[in-house]
């Protein structure tokens, strides 16, 4: 561990070759840093290159001085905290108490807490690291900042990483001073209010794509179910009933028949909650009733479900391109040709099959193209450049077009197979017939909503009309529920 600590995160070559880090003007504001670890080193480099004078407080300055830019002064903790007004505390929470001997020198100064707890520590301590630091140093002003910025981002500069720096403190003046420093360093301060927000800020780096958890589990669940179903039909049935070994199909063929099923069903699940919400509003005759929680959550996860659908569809396209590269495919082609020759058939051409395949491929490409458009417009930078009408046209109307194209793609794939007895292996219907269920319900419901008497009623309800004639607001009993909103 100590060997790891000796290794500089910023290479000395880089530090020394950067002339802007070599000398800082005498009149530059002085900033202190307690600790000489990874974060302290990156912070010192960024501060020096942003025009600050830096003094680092270490328990062993001799050992660590060589790892910092030459413009930064590395000294003992007591000396480092004596002159600067702002001091960054770049040590872990468990070592805060070891700094208590510096209480007198630190009195009246601004301490910037940059620490992040582990997930276990976050659950274990009710009070945030910053509040704990404030309780240890009551004569100081504690500001929580920079904890969401990694040492790497500090080192590489804000161009290559997250630019936002949430900041909170009970003292507006101290918060302003640290915010100005953040701006000078090229970051964007975000005021998070009082020090009570520190716990929320400390939870930020612990999150791992929270909005993606349920959609990813849903996609995985669908994948496992369809994969198992396809395995039984395409591999197990020939093995059991015909003694044919088709296990080679597991890595490519079965995966490629599973992916479009998942993509297609996921796409329909993007539009199903909207249909359910509209049905509920029509039934209740008002929009002033909360949707059930599960529907609310579902509505809020539509973007992620749509992107996962696009991901599976793109993988399906890639797998399909690779199908002819398989050795098994080449053998199949050669065997077919030999059979043709033996049967003395010179020209194999089934007009219906040719047309089916042409239409099937074209519809698939069109569906994937439309889905790509949806995926691109859901990127915040693109979405921000569209007005509300443009965004809803792409996401709602074009999205529905993608669903219809995918349905036609599936139907041309199936063609007459749903009516052929030989396709029902182990009495199980072909997979595509199962995948058609939910999308067809959605398309049918959407078509019904287009009927003039239904669409007019729905439009009136969404403009505030109520069946009972009076607008009644039902307040949620639970406060937390009041914060949630539904978007249809
Ligand atoms: P680190 O490399 O382990 O450095 C910690 C430093 O604490 C040591 O170099 C040590 O410096 C100092 N220290 C002071 N008193 C100590 C004591 N009693 N025992 C042991 N060390 C003591 O850790 P780090 O990655 O720089 O992280 C420092 C703080 O920044 C942590 O609170 C972390 O959560 C936060 N942070 C880090 C990152 C990151 O990317 N690394 C990002 C955001 C926030 P001396 O030996 O010179 O005194």
UniProtKB/TrEMBL annotation:
<keyword id="KW-0812">Transmembrane</keyword>
<dbReference type="GO" id="GO:0015677">
    <property type="term" value="P:copper ion import"/>
</dbReference>
<keyword id="KW-0479">Metal-binding</keyword>
<keyword id="KW-0274">FAD</keyword>
<keyword id="KW-0813">Transport</keyword>
<keyword id="KW-0967">Endosome</keyword>
<keyword id="KW-0410">Iron transport</keyword>
<dbReference type="Pfam" id="PF03807">
    <property type="entry name" value="F420_oxidored"/>
</dbReference>
<feature type="transmembrane region" description="Helical">
    <location>
        <begin position="359"/>
        <end position="379"/>
    </location>
</feature>
<dbReference type="GO" id="GO:0005886">
    <property type="term" value="C:plasma membrane"/>
</dbReference>
<keyword id="KW-0408">Iron</keyword>
<feature type="transmembrane region" description="Helical">
    <location>
        <begin position="432"/>
        <end position="454"/>
    </location>
</feature>
<keyword id="KW-0560">Oxidoreductase</keyword>
<keyword id="KW-1133">Transmembrane helix</keyword>
<dbReference type="Pfam" id="PF01794">
    <property type="entry name" value="Ferric_reduct"/>
</dbReference>
<keyword id="KW-0285">Flavoprotein</keyword>
<comment type="similarity">
    <text>Belongs to the STEAP family.</text>
</comment>
<dbReference type="GO" id="GO:0010008">
    <property type="term" value="C:endosome membrane"/>
</dbReference>
<dbReference type="GO" id="GO:0052851">
    <property type="term" value="F:ferric-chelate reductase (NADPH) activity"/>
</dbReference>
<feature type="transmembrane region" description="Helical">
    <location>
        <begin position="252"/>
        <end position="280"/>
    </location>
</feature>
<keyword id="KW-0406">Ion transport</keyword>
<keyword id="KW-0186">Copper</keyword>
<feature type="transmembrane region" description="Helical">
    <location>
        <begin position="214"/>
        <end position="232"/>
    </location>
</feature>
<dbReference type="InterPro" id="IPR028939">
    <property type="entry name" value="P5C_Rdtase_cat_N"/>
</dbReference>
<dbReference type="GO" id="GO:0006826">
    <property type="term" value="P:iron ion transport"/>
</dbReference>
<feature type="transmembrane region" description="Helical">
    <location>
        <begin position="391"/>
        <end position="412"/>
    </location>
</feature>
<feature type="domain" description="Pyrroline-5-carboxylate reductase catalytic N-terminal">
    <location>
        <begin position="30"/>
        <end position="117"/>
    </location>
</feature>
<protein>
    <submittedName>
        <fullName>STEAP3 metalloreductase</fullName>
    </submittedName>
</protein>
<dbReference type="GO" id="GO:0046872">
    <property type="term" value="F:metal ion binding"/>
</dbReference>
<dbReference type="InterPro" id="IPR051267">
    <property type="entry name" value="STEAP_metalloreductase"/>
</dbReference>
<feature type="domain" description="Ferric oxidoreductase">
    <location>
        <begin position="261"/>
        <end position="404"/>
    </location>
</feature>
<keyword id="KW-0349">Heme</keyword>
<dbReference type="InterPro" id="IPR036291">
    <property type="entry name" value="NAD(P)-bd_dom_sf"/>
</dbReference>
<dbReference type="InterPro" id="IPR013130">
    <property type="entry name" value="Fe3_Rdtase_TM_dom"/>
</dbReference>
<keyword id="KW-0472">Membrane</keyword>
<feature type="transmembrane region" description="Helical">
    <location>
        <begin position="305"/>
        <end position="326"/>
    </location>
</feature>
<dbReference type="GO" id="GO:0008823">
    <property type="term" value="F:cupric reductase (NADH) activity"/>
</dbReference>
């Amino acid at each position: 561990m100590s060997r790891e600590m000796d290794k500089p995160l910023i290479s000395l070559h880089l530090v020394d070759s950067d002339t802007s880090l070599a000398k800082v003007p005498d009149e530059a504001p002085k900033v202190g840093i307690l600790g000489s670890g990874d974060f302290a080193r990156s912070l010192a480099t960024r501060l020096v290159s942003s025009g600050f004078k830096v003094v680092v407080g270490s328990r062993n300055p001799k050992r660590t001085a060589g790892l910092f830019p030459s413009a930064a002064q590395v000294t003992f903790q007591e000396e480092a905290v004596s002159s600067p007004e702002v001091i960054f505390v770049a040590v872990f929470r468990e070592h805060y108490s070891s700094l208590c001997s510096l209480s007198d020198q630190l009195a009246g100064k601004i301490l910037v807490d940059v620490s992040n707890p582990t997930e276990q520590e976050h659950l274990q301590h009710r009070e945030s690291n910053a509040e704990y630091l404030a309780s240890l140093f009551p004569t100081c002003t504690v500001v929580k900042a920079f904890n969401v910025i990694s040492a790497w981002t500090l080192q590489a500069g804000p161009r290559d990483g997250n630019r936002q720096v949430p900041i909170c403190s009970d003292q507006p003046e101290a918060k302003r001073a640290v915010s100005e420093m953040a701006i000078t360093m090229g970051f964007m301060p975000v005021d998070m209010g009082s020090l009570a927000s520190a716990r929320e800020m400390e939870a930020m780096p612990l999150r791992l794509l929270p909005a993606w958890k349920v959609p990813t589990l849903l996609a995985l669940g669908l994948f496992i179910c369809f994969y198992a179903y396809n395995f039984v039909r395409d591999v197990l049935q020939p093995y059991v009933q015909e003694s044919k070994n088709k296990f080679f199909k597991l890595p490519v063929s079965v995966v490629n028949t599973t992916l479009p099923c998942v993509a297609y069903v996921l796409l329909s699940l993007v539009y199903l909650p909207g249909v359910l919400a509209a049905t509920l509003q029509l039934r209740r005759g008002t929009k002033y009733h909360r949707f059930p929680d599960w529907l609310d959550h579902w509505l809020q996860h539509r973007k992620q479900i749509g992107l996962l659908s696009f991901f599976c569809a793109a993988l399906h396209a890639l797998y399909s391109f690779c199908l002819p590269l398989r050795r098994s495919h080449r053998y199949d082609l050669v065997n077919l040709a030999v059979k043709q020759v033996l049967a003395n058939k010179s020209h194999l051409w089934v007009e219906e099959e040719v047309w089916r395949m042409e239409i099937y491929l074209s519809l698939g490409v069109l569906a994937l193209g439309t889905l790509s458009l949806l995926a691109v417009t859901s990127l915040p930078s693109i979405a921000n450049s569209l007005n509300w009408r443009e965004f809803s046209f792409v996401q709602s109307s074009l999205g529905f077009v993608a669903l219809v194209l995918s349905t036609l793609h599936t139907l041309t794939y199936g063609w007459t197979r749903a009516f052929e007895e030989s396709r029902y292996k182990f009495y199980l219907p072909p997979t595509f017939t199962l995948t058609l269920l939910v999308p067809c319900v959605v398309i049918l419901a959407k078509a019904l909503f287009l009927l003039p008497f239904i669409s007019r009623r729905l439009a009136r309800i969404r403009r505030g009309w109520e069946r009972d004639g009076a607008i009644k607001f039902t307040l949620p009993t639970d406060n937390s529920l009041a914060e949630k909103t539904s978007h249809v």
